[in-house]
Amino acid sequence: NELSVDKTKKKKRRELTEEQKQEIKDAFELFDTDKDREINYHELKVAMRALGFDVKKADVLKILKDCDRESTGKITFEDFNAVVTDWILDRDPQEEILKAFKLFDDDDSGKISLRNLRRVARELGENMSDEELRAMIEEFDKDGDGEINQEEFIAIMTGDI
């Protein structure tokens, strides 16, 4: 009986946040250089990458083929919005969190150290002292080893603290 409960949970379609909807609109408008509310193959590829999708040529061509009903070689905002919305909702949140963890853990130690956090903060233009960074680690470091492991990172990202 527990299994059936889990299945219904997974089927429940998540919705985009207002911020995500705005990001999609902004990406489209940014690359719709002639403002005709359509983007071509190259613009589509760049817009998808700007939204964080590692699209290959085949992916972009398939999207165009599926959406370009008038054979103009372009895709409308409505179609772009529908495709990107599906792609975002199909992302596995757990997989996205683990990708983010790997960005922090650039030395593949399986943990985020003070040095890892300092590097990321610097790359993001955050001017934080070691004290502030240490305090961040201490706040979420449940096992007390002075570093953030994958489990602790997942808890941070899912708000499951």
UniProtKB/TrEMBL annotation:
The gene is Cetn3. Residues 1-20 are annotated as: Disordered. PROSITE patterns: EF_HAND_1, EF_HAND_2. SMART domains: EFh (SM00054). Gene3D superfamilies: EF-hand. SUPFAM superfamilies: EF-hand. CDD domains: EFh. This is CETN3 protein.
